[in-house]
Amino acid sequence: MHFASSSSGLLFIVSAPSGVGKSTLIRSVLAECPNLKFSVSCTTRPPRPEEINGRDYVFIEKEEFLRGIDSGRFLEWAEVHGNYYGTDSRPIEEWLSAGQDVLLDIDVQGARMVRCAFPGAVTIFVLPPSFQELEERLKNRATESPEQLAVRFEAARRELFDAPWYDYVIINDDLKEAVADLAAVLRAGRCARIPQAPVLKKFLATVVGARA
């Protein structure tokens, strides 16, 4: 899949509670959309066994993260479950200025902050088939203590109530269908009136010229 560039790229925000399978979904879509840029979030939490630095997250020390907050490095940042997460603004601004579309994987709190800086961002919320299914997925990961799981469950409940404020909602029940839905949203965003305004302006200019 290929998206034509305009004078400015589009920003897509994907959010979901932990355990929904958002990372797998995003990796699958990126494989289909090689020209879509993905902003890898920074975090101070330790990597899980299957995670790779620079692919899943940029893992940095807390002191470096705090210096980044003071210097305005992050487009958005938050403390979640005792760890810091943030989006480095520098590559995003460069990509968008070059007309490249960018995908962000951030939580609901970060999404609110990004929408303040980029009101035209397209927001996508990924839901599990049910809350019970989400609980089972989190338990089956076996990466957290019962106390940590309880915190995850409560955070998920709160985050789910933000879903109605997103532009699009995707249910990740069948991965293949969810990937197709997300790819469709990306294509629809590129075809919207505002991103297509430069193309439309040139086209209408030729129509006016033809009439003259």
Looking across the biggest beta sheet, what order are the strands in?
A: 2-7-1-8-9
If you average the pLDDT, what whole number results? Answer: 88
Give the name of the CATH superfamily of one domain: P-loop containing nucleotide triphosphate hydrolases
The first-to-last residue Cα distance is: 38 Å
Biggest beta-sheet profile = 5 strands, parallel
- Indicate the overall shape: globular
How much of the sequence lies in strands comes to 15-25%
How would you spell out the order of helices and strands? EHEEEHEEHEHEHHEHH
Structural class, from secondary structure content?
alpha/beta
Count the E strands: 9
User: Radius of gyration in whole Å, from Cα?
Assistant: 19 Å
Give the low-pLDDT segments: 1-6
Level-2 CATH architecture of one domain:
3-Layer(aba) Sandwich
* Highest-level CATH class of one domain: Alpha Beta
CATH topology of one domain: Rossmann fold
Please tally the helical runs, counting DSSP H or I stretches of 4 or more residues. Answer: 8
Helix content: 40-55%
Descriptive report:
With 212 residues, this protein is α/β, with parallel strands linked by helices. The chain has a domain of 138 residues: 3-Layer(aba) Sandwich (Rossmann fold). It contains eight helices and nine strands. Strands 2-7-1-8-9 form a five-stranded parallel beta sheet, with helices on both faces. It has a four-stranded mixed beta sheet with strand order 4-3-6-5. A hairpin with a 2-residue loop joins strand 5 and strand 6. Helix 1 crosses helix 7 and helix 5 packs antiparallel against helix 6. The radius of gyration is 19 Å and the shape is globular. The relative contact order is 0.20. The N terminus is likely disordered.
